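From: lab user (bench 3)
To: helpdesk
Subject: output format question, protein + uridine-5'-diphosphate

Hello, I'm new to running complex predictions and I'm not sure whether the block I got back is the full result or only part of it. Here's what I submitted:
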Amino acid sequence: MVSWRRLPGLFPTMLFLVSTANIFLVFYVKNVIQELKKESHGYLEVHPPSFSHENAVIERLEHLEMYMHNISANSMKKPSHNERMKQKEDDIKLPEESKGEMHQAEKAKEEDKMKKEKKVVHRKLFPDSRLFKRWGADLTEEQQTTAQDLFTKYGYNVYLSDRLPLDRPIPDTRYPSCKEKKYSHDLPTLSVILIFMNEAMSIILRAITSIINRTPSHLLKEIVLVDDYSSNEALKGNLDEQIKNYNAKHPGLLKIVRHQKREGLTQARISGWEASTADVVAILDAHIEVNVGWAEPILSRIKEDRTVIISPVFDNVRFDDFELLEYAVAADGFDWALWCLYEPLPREWYELKDETAPVRSPSIMGILAAHRVFLGEIGVLDGGMHIYGGENVELGLRVWQCGGQIEVLPCSRVAHLERAHKPYLLDFSIAVRRNALRVAEVWMDDYKYMVYFAWNLPVENPGIDYGDVSSRKELRKKLNCKSFDWYIKNVYPNLIPLTTIVGYGTMKNTLNENICIDQGPVPGNTPIMYGCHAYSPQHLFYLSTGEMYIGGLRSRQNTVDRCLTDPGTGDLPFIEQCNEAVKKGLNMHWDFKQGSSVMNKKTRRCLEIVKDNPSSPDRLVMQNCSGQKWNVQHTVKDWGKRSALR
Ligand code: UDP
Ligand code: MN
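Helpdesk reply: Thanks, we reran it on our side. This is the complete output you should expect:
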C-alpha cells in the first residue's frame, strides 16, 4: 500500500521521493489484532523493510485494499488452510452466460500452448512491475506486454481474470459455527448494487455470477449495476448484451443505471439505492466475489432490526494472482484524518462466546447492507462527497448519532479484489481531505479541530472548498441527532481527542528555515533535521501540558503517539511512545512558546541545531541553551476548553 494518498498536495518530485520511501511498512502486533500501517517517512534514505512494535494505525487503505492480513488471535480459531481448501463448492453451477469472454476451445488451446512454452525461459520485459513479482513467469514476451498493459489500465490482473472461470470456487472462510447456523426461509428480499467505473468486464461478470450462485434465488430480487460514466467501450454495448443474456435466464434480474457524467462513487451508490426496490440493499464494489451464505446473516439481522447498517467481513483477493487471503474479523474504525482502519474486536463481543454474533462497529469501510427504506430515512449517503472517500465515516457517524447502529457480521463474507493502483485518481489525499472536512463540519462539533490538526490544516481559512453542507446540517437537525461528544464516549472511546493541542505542523529553527524537525528513520528513535516537505513525518504537535508529539497524529488507545524526550545525557534527543515515556519516567515535557526556545522542563537543556563544521548539514541536538528560536507552523488556543466538549 502506498501512503502517498495521505500526503497533502501534489509536488511531483517530492511525491515520488516520499512514495519511494513510504513503501516500508511498519507492523505491530498487539493483543487481539495484527494491524499494518503505511508509514510515511520524511527521512528519504532507503532503508530495508522492517518490523517495529509500535505505531499501529491502519489508515484509510483505500477502504479495504490493504497489504495487511489482519489476524485476531485469542479466541478466534480460523479453519486451517487444508480444511478450507477441502471445502466443497459443488453447489455452484456454471450458467451458460458465465463462461467468460473467451471461448472454451480457444482457452484450452492457449493453455496447451502455454504448457508447451513452459519450458522455455522468457525474458522478463517488466522486471520492476508489481504484476510480475509473484506471477507470470511462464508468459511469452507478447503475453507479458498484453498483461502489463491491462494491469496499467485497471490496477489488477485483467489478463488472468479473463482466463479464470467466472464461477471459480473460492475458499469458504467462515468460522465453522457460521456454517452450522440455520436461517429462516422467510427473509426480506435483496437488491444488490454493483457500482463501477472502468472495471474490467470479466471482473463485473464474475461478481454477478457469484451473487447469482451464492444468494438464495427466492431472496435475490435484483442486481442493479451502476455505471459511473465509464469510458471503456466494452462496458457499453457488450455489457448490455450480457445483461440481456442474464435476463433471458433470470427475467428482470439485472438492471443498469448509467450516469451521464462522472459523479464519483458516493453518487453511484446513491443512484443504485434510488433504482432499487427490494426490502434490503447491499451496495458493493464491482470487483468482489460474494462467498457462500453471505446474504442470509444480513437479511436475518435486518429482519430483526431495521435500524442496523451492516458490513460483511472482507477477504482480500490479491491483485496479481487472484488468490484469496483470509482476513480476520474486525470492527471498522478511523483515525482523526478519517482514513478508515480496522479496530480490534470489542471485549463484549468475546464475552458473548459466540463467533457468529454481530460485531458492534464505530464505522464502515464502504461496502454496506441496509434496510432500503431506513437508509433513505436517515439520508442514504452524502451526495456532496467528491470522487472518493469520506462517505463511509459520514455514514458511520450519522447512523450512530441519529439512532441506528453499525455491525460487522462475521458470518457474511465478501472477497474484495485489491488494486495495486487506482486508475482513476493519482493522489487520493486531495479528495479524502476535502471530504473529511465535510464530515467534520457537519457531524463532529468542536472535535472537528482534530481533523484539521490531523491534516495539518489551519483551523481558520484552511483554503479548501468542501462544498455546501447546509442540507446535511438540516438533516442532522431534522433527525434530532446526538452530539459527537456522545458518539466518542459511547461508541468510539478508542479514538482519543487531544484537547490540549496548542501548536501543530512543521517546526523550523530561525537559523535555517529550509529544514524542519523530522521523525527520522522508522524504525528508529532519533529525530533529525530534514528538508521541509510538511508530510506527516514532519508533523509535530505541542500540547499545553508540555508533551511534544512527532511524526503525525495517532491518538487511539492501541496506537499511541510518539513523544520527544531528552535522555539527559549525550547530545541526541530521543523519541519514545508516549505511554512508554510516562512509564519509564522519561523527560518528556517541554517549555515552548512561538518564536522561543524549546527547553526540557526537567533537564533544562534545549533542542537546538548545530553544524559540526561549516560545510556540514545542520544536526538536531540537545545542548545547553544558547538562545535558538523555533516556530511551529500553526498555533491554536486551548481548544479543548470549549463547552461542547464537556
Ligand atoms: N467508482 C465509481 N466512480 C468513481 C470511482 C470509483 O463508481 O469515480 C467505483 C469503483 O469502480 C468501485 C467502487 O467505486 O467499484 C469503489 O472504488 P475502489 O474499489 O477504487 O475503492 P476501494 O475499494 O479501493 O476503496
Ligand atoms: Mn474496491
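A quick orientation on your result: The pocket of manganese (II) ion (ligand 2) is lined by residues 63, 285, 287, 416 (CB under 6 Å). Let us know if anything else is unclear.
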